[in-house]
Design goal:
The protein is mostly beta strands. Helix content is 13%, strand content 53%. The chain contains four helices and 17 strands. The radius of gyration is 33 Å and the shape is elongated.
């Protein structure tokens, strides 16, 4: 015979039960309350706790006294669930501590980048002060003949962006979502497109590493009595951005299975889950109720999570090659004139 749970106000003495529930001396089970608003929800653990509770409810009052969760395996296959990204927003912050402004809405303090948006202005500047990696090569021709020099440059640069999240969901010690990295254009502009997408699978975050090799080969012709300087400047930008990724968790088959197995691997209990909104009430998705026009109801087969986190690291931008020329004779005359003026000033003193 199965017994029923006592009312919440029942004064019956309780003693410890394994994860997810408590047992009282009368044998009936009442679940321990979960944190109503955890920052990161372990969806697999929530389902496992529910299945274990249903298994305990299926036992007699006497049998429940001897149940130990450590004697069983709660198997929650995740192949019954689909995780779909439905929206993504990245807000880029500049080095001065503020957020970049949206040209169309000057009151906004943040720039939003959506992966599907095509109407975001590309006129953003001064998002962050660039770091310059430069190299100069001098070509000096003291002869009266034109000289040709071979210019060759090659440099490999590495950059990394760390992705960490502080709110959202996990699947055990893993997770499943992706984040777009803002594309930095020459001059510090931010494009409406993403330069890459980082797939995040670890709850501890991911690191996106990029290696870029810059090469340049050219023949430089230097006129007689001329001095040429070839300069290469490569820009790197410090990136600090906040992101929000909206992910829907659904059951394509409208239901999912879970099992309780003993230590030998034999199934002793199975459970069919049909209502996700019951397990995740804070994450329910409301839709129109066809039976009650003008009313809403929660979808039973899907819930929604908003993943919030931070992008932090360095991104590489473009490189520029600049060629400056100078007349050696003119430069020497200017130098001689400067030296004469300095000598005259010293003599006068």
């Amino acid at each position: 015979m199965l017994c029923r749970r006592p009312p919440a106000s029942s004064p019956e003495l309780k003693f410890e039960c394994k994860r997810g529930s408590t047992r009282n001396m009368g044998g009936c089970i009442t679940r321990q309350e979960r944190d109503p608003r955890p920052l990161i929800i372990d969806v697999q653990q929530v389902i496992a706790d529910e299945v274990w509770g249903m298994f305990c409810d299926s036992q007699t009052c006497w049998a429940r006294r001897f149940l130990k969760r450590s004697d069983y395996i709660v198997d929650v296959p995740m192949n019954y669930y689909d995780f779909e990204e439905v929206d993504q927003v990245v807000e880029v912050r500049n080095q001065r501590g503020g957020h970049s402004r949206v040209p169309e809405r000057t009151e906004s303090k943040k720039k939003k980048l959506a992966g599907s948006s095509k109407d975001i202005s590309k006129s953003w500047r001064d998002l962050t002060s660039p770091e310059h990696v430069g190299l100069e090569t001098d070509f000096r021709n003291n002869t009266v003949e034109t000289q040709t020099y071979n210019f060759k440059f090659e440099k490999t640069r590495k950059a990394a962006v760390n992705v960490n999240y502080q709110k959202g969901f996990s699947i055990g010690n893993k997770t499943k979502f992706s984040v777009g990295l803002p594309k930095v254009l020459p001059g510090g502009e931010i494009s409406s497109e993403f330069s890459a997408h980082v797939s995040v699978t670890k709850t501890t975050g991911e690191t996106f590493e990029e290696t870029l090799t810059t090469t340049a080969t050219s023949d430089i012709t230097v006129a007689p009595k001329s001095h040429y300087i070839a300069s290469i400047v490569m820009e790197e930008y410090n990136l600090h951005a906040e992101f929000k990724v909206t992910v829907n968790m659904s059951m394509p088959a409208k239901q999912a299975k879970a099992y309780i197995k003993d230590k030998h691997g034999d199934t002793v209990f199975y459970y069919t889950l049909k209502n996700l909104s019951h397990l995740f009430p804070q994450n329910k998705i409301e839709v129109d109720d066809p039976k009650r026009p003008g009313s809403k109801k929660a979808r039973e087969d899907a819930v929604q999570f908003v993943v919030e986190g931070v992008l932090n690291g360095v991104q590489m931008s473009s490189h520029k090659i600049k060629l400056d020329s100078q007349d050696l004779e003119g430069a020497e005359e200017a130098r001689d004139r400067k030296m004469l003026m300095r000598s005259a000033a010293n003599a006068a003193s």
